[in-house]
Amino acid sequence: MLRAGSLFELVDPVAVSIGPVLVVVPAGYVTDFASLPAVLHWWIRPTDIRSARAAIVHDWIYHTHILPRSLADAIFQVVLRLDGMPRRKAKILTAAVRAYGKRAYMAGPDRLVERSPSLAGHIRPTSDIE
Length: 130
Prior knowledge:
The chain is of the alpha+beta class. It has one domain (about 30-120). It has four helices and five strands.
């Protein structure tokens, strides 16, 4: 599924379907998985399988603005739980992205163009940052 390096490139699409919402992250997308300070890697590894899909989809939404930030964060928490993350850890991780994610969301399209230039056509303009 992944090619390793300092970042990771998807070689297969990753999809999440929750109710009426379907998010498909295309092959070729480059992610860093969960962006956590190194001091927290003892608690959860950025590539932990229980957070990998949630982090990929969350980053994709932040980079493309295909959905509002608030929905991206809610999807993140649901997918964490679906993929086996304990409730408490999922809540803490979601609270962290809510508290500290605004700058990342605002910079998202620029980061997508930088990391995955061939996918820049997926960016949607939006002013919704909540």
